[in-house]
Design a protein that fits this description.
heterodimer; A: alpha+beta; Alpha-Beta Plaits; three-stranded antiparallel β-sheet; 18% strand; B: alpha+beta; Beta Polymerase, domain 2; Cytochrome-c3 Hydrogenase, chain B; four-stranded antiparallel β-sheet; 20 helices; 38% helix
């Protein structure tokens, strides 16, 4: 009987979700969004991601793809904390139900730079371009060489300079 | 602590124990730090050592079996004894050469060692001599013989073919099954109750159905130290923060990393918030089990603001993702402090009214009083933990016995009842809610300033290199259900061995004395009264039940293995 008076005071507390918006506090972390304009494809986020929801893969056409699969995401937001470019934002979105798997994946495509000698992929184009800018000078000339070929080219250059036949 | 001396001897000091173990039993100190000493004893002396420690007032926390073949060509078992009244741990190691892998069992001396010994046998393949064996405790029936998943040569993602299940020891009489899926117990576990008329005369239990292989995963290349808090949090859906804090405390201990004071306070506050919501959840479920659904709904209504508060502070209702090695990720600012205070004030008022009402409802009182009794001596023998221990007159609380984080800074009472029945377990939890509210208030008042993250750890990557290999650590945290223990042996960039002992693991064996002699109708309440968490208990398995169709448990054709409790 006493419970009735408690119930009368409490009234209805349930909400008509999903016909009403859910209660989400300002502290809530939901899914993430990657800004393709800011992302360099460095892949730091893929190394910190506990459930491997973020992966960096190379496609056959040579492009590098940062893939975000929401089905695995645990909404921890660690990626946003470590992203050196501030390209990842944590949203308040958590209603991800969908009929197709594709809806749960977001890809950010990056062109790659290939080594001009051996053709091996060195890394994502934007990252290398920006890195080259900040390095500048003599070293910038070697931006499109893989570490192996760079060693050879530099060594050859030095040998020519000192007059030894490579 | 004086409470315990009435029925338990006062534990000797760490120096005395170390001296005794080395001089009289031929032990060798491997390593020691404040409140922890690791002693390796010869195999033949283990039983005597266990007898000595147990008779001087120690509780067995758990044991951890480790495959150390890659380090020293042997297997090892670490028995972790907690000297509650002096607040330190004695870790007794016994090794067995790889070609002669047996260790003596201590279960006849320390009954609490039963499960962890069987687990050592199942998961690492160490033979235990001198004890009654059941075919399997942890591994499923169709798991191949001689394949021990926690051995280092078994890859973490290995899926063995299913073999024909052998029939296992089971009672000749047929009992009343409860589970593996049961409307009252929300996780899969299986009890078979043998009855005479209406009275339960014996209990058989088969658990470990929620197989996720978390320990093995934590040791696998998939994980590194900084990711483990997130994995540990997923051991349990209710006390996840306890597990992540406990794992982190072990890692910080091993590496000598000191989290800033403010971070310790924040962790403590969140731990207490978690206790509040867990106890409220349980009180609701208890009412539900008794068929008092209105009480259940109102308890959960009162609980909801705590969940919303947790989300505000941490970013998520559960699996907070707040903890990192070296500190916490989010601060509690003025605005949040105000909201916490406001929510707690309201909760205290509402829950007081509701709790008084619930325990005075005659239908609840009559069902709970005098049922599911666990005596103090049985509680002591099984080393039960948490509210179950405190309802049976055992004064045990990690927060008091081994003060960690900011618990030294708060004054609080540990509710103690001696009846050992279901009502006592309800009352312990109800009182603990109010104590937790008071702890949070005190800590918010004292919250020190400063950073929330250790500077050396603030960059993410180096943490994995800050924890050197070859170190040991044991950490314990008082979860809502009792003492949670994590044992850590560090490796290169990730744990070499990570053993998790959840509170329910220690409490389930106590169900047998609780259920025997009681009417069948009280069994669901008694089972629920230990607040069982099966996903915590079962954390160590490697088989994914969903993929092995042949592993479906058949209840009625004798395919299920039961383990005598």
């Amino acid at each position: 009987m006493k419970l009735l008076s408690i119930a009368a005071r409490a009234k209805v507390v349930t909400r008509r979700y999903p016909f009403e918006p859910p209660v989400v506090t300002e502290g809530f972390r939901g899914k993430i969004e990657v800004d393709p304009k800011l992302c360099w494809g460095c892949g730091v986020c893929t190394r910190i991601c506990p459930p491997n929801a973020l992966t960096l893969k190379q496609r056959e056409d040579g492009t590098l793809v940062l893939s975000y699969f929401m089905g695995r995401c645990i909404f921890c937001g660690m990626c946003a904390e470590v992203c050196p470019r501030g390209a990842i934002t944590v949203t308040k979105e958590f209603e991800l139900a969908s009929l197709t798997m594709e809806d749960l994946t977001r890809d950010v495509k990056h062109d790659v730079v290939r080594c001009r000698i051996c053709g091996r992929v060195i890394g994502p184009a934007v990252e290398i371009k920006e890195a080259t800018k900040s390095v500048g000078g003599e070293e910038a000339k070697y931006y499109d060489l893989c570490p192996e070929c760079r060693k050879l080219v530099v060594a050859r250059g030095i040998m020519t300079k000192v007059g030894v036949r490579p | 602590m004086g409470e315990q001396s009435k029925y338990l001897p006062e534990c000797p000091g760490m120096d005395e124990v170390t001296r005794k173990l080395t001089e009289e039993y031929g032990g060798r100190v491997i390593f020691s730090r404040e409140a922890e000493v690791y002693v390796e004893v010869p195999r033949h002396a283990l039983k005597d050592v266990a007898k000595y420690l147990y008779s001087s007032g120690a509780f067995l926390k758990t044991c951890a079996a480790v495959d150390e073949r890659s380090l020293n060509h042997s297997f090892a078992v670490y028995h972790i004894f907690g000297m509650d009244s002096k607040g330190y741990d004695v870790i007794v190691k016994v090794s067995a050469p790889e070609n002669n892998a047996w260790v003596p069992s201590i279960v006849n001396v320390v009954p609490a060692a039963d499960w962890c010994e069987l687990e050592a046998r199942d998961m690492v393949g160490i033979e235990l001599r001198g004890r009654r064996l059941v075919r399997r405790l942890v591994l499923p029936e169709d798991w191949p013989e001689h394949l021990h998943p926690l051995r280092k040569d078994v890859p973490h993602n290995f899926r063995p073919p299913s073999v024909k299940a052998e029939s296992e020891f089971r009672p000749a009489e047929r009992g009343i099954p409860i589970g593996p899926y049961h409307p009252v117990l929300h996780e899969p576990e299986y009890f078979e109750l043998l009855v005479e008329g209406e009275t339960v005369v014996d209990v058989y239990y088969r658990g470990f159905h929620v197989h996720r292989g978390i320990e093995k995963l934590g040791e696998s290349p998939r994980f590194t130290y900084q990711k483990i808090p997130f994995l540990a949090e997923r051991i349990c859906g209710i006390c996840g923060f306890v597990h992540s804090t406990c794992a982190i405390m072990a890692m910080e201990k091993a590496a000598g990393i000191m989290p800033p004071e403010r971070a310790e306070y924040i962790r403590t506050i969140v731990l207490e918030l978690e206790r509040i919501h867990s106890h409220l959840l349980w009180v609701g479920v208890a009412a539900h089990v008794l068929g008092y659904d209105a009480g259940f709904m109102h308890t959960w209504r009162v609980r909801e603001p705590v969940m919303i508060l947790s989300e505000l502070i941490t970013g998520s209702r559960k699996t907070y993702g707040l903890n990192l090695v070296g500190g916490v990720r989010r601060d509690i600012d003025k605005d949040k402090m105000e909201k916490i205070t406001k929510t707690l004030d309201r909760l205290e008022k509402e829950f007081k009214e509701l709790a008084n009402l619930l325990v005075s409802v005659p239908q609840i009182r009559n069902r709970a009083q005098g049922t599911g009794v666990l005596s103090r001596s049985e509680a002591r023998a099984l080393s039960v933990v948490g509210p179950v221990a405190r309802a049976s007159g055992l004064y045990r609380d990690v927060r008091k016995d081994y003060p960690y984080l900011a618990y030294r800074e708060a004054s609080f009472k540990v509710p103690l009842y001696t009846e050992g029945d279901n009502l006592a377990r309800v009352l312990v939890r109800v009182e603990e809610v109010f104590e937790s509210i008071s702890i949070i208030r005190q800590l918010l008042d004292k919250l020190p300033g400063g950073p929330i993250m250790n500077e050396e750890c603030s960059s993410i990557m180096p943490v994995d290199e800050m924890i050197p290999p070859g170190r040991y650590a044991v950490a314990a945290v008082e979860a809502p259900r009792g003492e949670d223990v994590h044992f850590l042996m560090t490796g290169e960039g990730r744990p070499y061995r990570w053993r998790v002992r959840a509170p329910t693991y220690q409490n389930i064996p106590a169900l047998r004395p609780m259920l025997r002699g009681d009417p069948l109708a009280d069994a669901p309440l008694t089972i629920a009264s230990i607040d069982p968490c099966f996903s915590c208990t079962d954390r160590a398995l490697v088989v994914d039940v969903r993929t092995g169709r042949a592993r479906t448990i058949k209840l009625w054709d004798g395919g299920v293995g039961t383990c005598r409790l």
